[in-house]
């Protein structure tokens, strides 16, 4: 089975983050089993999702870990020109949900495992395929937590997010936060008798925008990024029930994407301080209302030195030593920070195609990734 055939199977399984990924994991497990490669599953609490880990070669030393996520974003509300869960080739491009982000890399990794199964490896080739990356790198954490206790951890990690096979040595960290504002319901004709929860949320957003201006002016900078400073962003707001009711409830979802030199905890503390001051002002001495700030999930940034050995390894495999930093996140910071595994992000396809209708990966990118994987197998042999 070649890479294109593997990718056809992977795209045909709709592993949207809100749904199970077990059908895809079972396909991968059987693919590996047919090549006499054992794998290990890490189930989630519901039993409907799993990470898969597999290793080929010696068991008494660390190897090269290929890491990728199996989940994809939804297609709801997007206008596709073909079935998003059926791989379609046109003009040298392969269209389908997840083709670039990041089932193309997983297909190449499985093809590499096929090649490696026919060789005598001196250094292990290791695979880690996770769930729920798209909603905060959630699934991979159970595998990483287990990995911290291993006597022989992977020596290097390549996260296969789409970078056009450029070597990404850095990405920002992220904290996802929910702010729940509770006011006091009243008739809109007597707003003085209530406490408007939407106003509380609006004032909090105003504070966030002021903090963003301060960050842009005075905050730590990393010129390797298109946006070289930490960003605060509000993504959703939900509140109110009717026009003639003072709203008693409002929620906003916000995020912090921080450069590695910056500490997101200080912004969380600042947001909590803003919330307390806003509430005290709005209450006017009345013991009503509340603003609760909750961290939903977070992951650290990645910051690998340009002269690190893992960079040299991947440069030798790709023939390109140019390093970049990417604006999107990955599990790379968790492997690097939690387990101490030198990590880069390098995979086929462009992130500019991810999450969009008619997502695609160029066949040329798959071919180049296959060449990189073949070179890796030769090196491990």
Considering the protein shown, what is the CATH homologous superfamily of the largest domain? Answer: Zn peptidases
Low-pLDDT windows of residues = none
Rounded Rg: 23 Å
Q: How would you sum up the global shape? A: elongated
CATH topology of the largest domain: the name is Aminopeptidase
Q: What is the count of distinct domains?
A: 2
User: Strand tally, please?
Assistant: 18
Number of helical segments with 4 or more residues: 9
Return the average pLDDT rounded to an integer. Answer: 96
What would you note in describing this structure?
With 381 residues, the protein is α+β, with helices and mostly antiparallel strands. It folds into two domains: 3-171 and 302-380, Aminopeptidase (3-Layer(aba) Sandwich), CATH 3.40.630; 173-299, Alpha-Beta Plaits, CATH 3.30.70.360. The protein contains nine helices and 18 strands. The chain has helices at 3-11, 22-33, 99-116, 140-147, 197-218, 264-283, 309-318, 332-339, 363-380; strands at 39-43, 50-56, 64-69, 88-90, 93-95, 125-130, 156-159, 167-171, 173-182, 186-187, 231-239, 245-246, 249-258, 290-299, 302-303, 323-326, 343-345, 360-362. The strands form five sheets. The protein has a six-stranded mixed β-sheet with strand order 1-2-6-3-7-17, with helices on both faces. A four-stranded antiparallel β-sheet has the order 11-13-9-14, covered by helices on one side. A hairpin with a 6-residue loop joins strand 1 (39-43) and strand 2 (50-56). Helix 3 runs parallel beside helix 9 (363-380) and helix 4 packs parallel to helix 8 (332-339). The longest helix has 22 residues, at 197-218. It is elongated. The two termini are 22 Å apart. The model has no long low-confidence stretch (mean pLDDT 96).
């Amino acid at each position: 089975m070649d890479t294109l055939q593997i990718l056809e199977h992977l795209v045909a399984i709709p592993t949207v983050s809100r749904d199970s990924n077990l059908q895809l994991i079972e396909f991968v497990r059987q693919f590996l089993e047919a090549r006499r490669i054992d794998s290990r599953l890490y189930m989630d609490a519901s039993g409907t999702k799993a990470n898969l880990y597999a290793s080929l070669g010696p068991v008494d030393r660390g190897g090269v870990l290929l890491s990728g996520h199996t989940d994809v974003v939804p297609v709801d509300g997007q206008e596709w020109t073909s079935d998003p869960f059926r791989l379609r080739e046109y003009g040298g491009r392969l269209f389908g949900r997840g083709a670039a982000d990041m089932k193309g890399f997983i297909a190449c990794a499985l093809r590499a495992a096929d090649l490696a199964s026919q060789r005598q490896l001196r250094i292990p080739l290791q695979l880690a395929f996770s769930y729920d990356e798209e909603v905060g790198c959630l699934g991979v954490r159970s595998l990483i937590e287990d990995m911290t206790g291993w006597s022989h951890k992977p020596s290097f990690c390549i996260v296969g997010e789409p970078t056009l096979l450029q070597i990404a040595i850095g990405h920002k960290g992220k904290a996802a936060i929910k702010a729940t504002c509770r006011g006091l319901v009243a008739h809109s004709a007597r707003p003085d008798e209530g406490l408007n929860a939407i106003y509380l949320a609006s004032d909090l957003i105003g504070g966030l925008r002021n903090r963003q201006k301060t960050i842009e002016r005075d905050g730590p900078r990393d010129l390797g990024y298109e946006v070289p400073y930490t960003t605060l962003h509000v993504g959703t707001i939900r509140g109110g029930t009717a026009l003639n009711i003072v709203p008693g409830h409002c929620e906003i979802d916000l995020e912090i994407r921080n450069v590695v030199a910056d500490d997101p905890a200080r912004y969380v503390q600042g947001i909590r301080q803003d919330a307390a001051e806003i509430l005290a002002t709005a209450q006017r001495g009345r013991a009503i209302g509340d603003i609760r700030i909750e961290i939903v999930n977070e992951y650290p940034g990645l910051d690998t030195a340009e002269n690190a050995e893992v960079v040299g390894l991947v440069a030798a495999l790709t023939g390109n030593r140019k390093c970049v930093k990417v604006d999107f996140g990955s599990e790379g910071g968790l492997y690097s920070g939690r387990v101490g595994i030198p990590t880069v992000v390098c995979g086929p396809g462009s992130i500019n195609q991810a999450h969009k209708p008619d997502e695609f990966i160029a066949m040329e990118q798959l071919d180049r990734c296959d060449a990189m994987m073949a070179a890796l197998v030769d090196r491990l042999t």
